[in-house]
Amino acid sequence: MSFVQPKKTLHDMNIAEGMTVVDFDAGAGYYTMALAEKVGSHGKVFAIDTRGDLLTRIANEAKILHHKNVEVMRGDIESPNGSGLLNESVDRVVIANTLFVCDYPERAVKESIRILKNKGKIAVIDWLDSFNHFGPHPDCIIPKEHIIAWFAKDGMALEKEFDAGEYHYGLVFKFKD
Checking phi first, is residue 54 left (phi over 0); if not, alpha (psi -120 to 50) or beta? Predict the structure, then answer.
């Protein structure tokens, strides 16, 4: 299995052409580029990160790949309204390899929920373990049960778990019915 599987994750989220999606803490942009392909020219992808150098890299790659539907935004997903997006403005949120590095991961969960439309979904991909320090320090690993509880506390239900590769778990959340 590959280390990251953006296209498989997108399949598990039922992302369709024309959707508005966001890649929280976009990093190298692996998910951003896959999202851009999936939503097509009528969709929109917001790549949010605190690091300007990575956002510049994403913007350059999007230009090379002719993804005019990608918008990079500097934002802090751990602050209230820190993403810079409006309430209930996106169809999907991807939070990949991010919560384990957050100082306040519950705040990032709240921010993802704030921007999500009523019928939207959020995918969380994070580390299963440290894997002898191949992954993050053992103290940084967040058990999926914690993440499920954080989302549940804020009105979200676990829709499904999915295979996110050998080193990660994948969770999809939606609003409780």
Answer: alpha
Each residue's pLDDT tens digit, 25-54? 999 999 999 999 999 999 999 999 999 999
Q: Which residues pair with 157 in a beta bridge?
A: 174
CATH class of 6-175: alpha beta
- Region 112-122: what's the mean pLDDT? 97
Q: Distance (Å, rounded) from C-alpha 77 to C-alpha 4?
A: 21
Spans of all domains in the chain = 6-175
Which of 126, 113, 140 lies closest to 168, judged by CA?
Answer: 126
pTM of the entire structure?
0.94
**Residue 172 β-bridge partners:** 123, 160
105 CB-near residues (< 8 Å, 6+ apart): 78, 99, 142, 147, 150
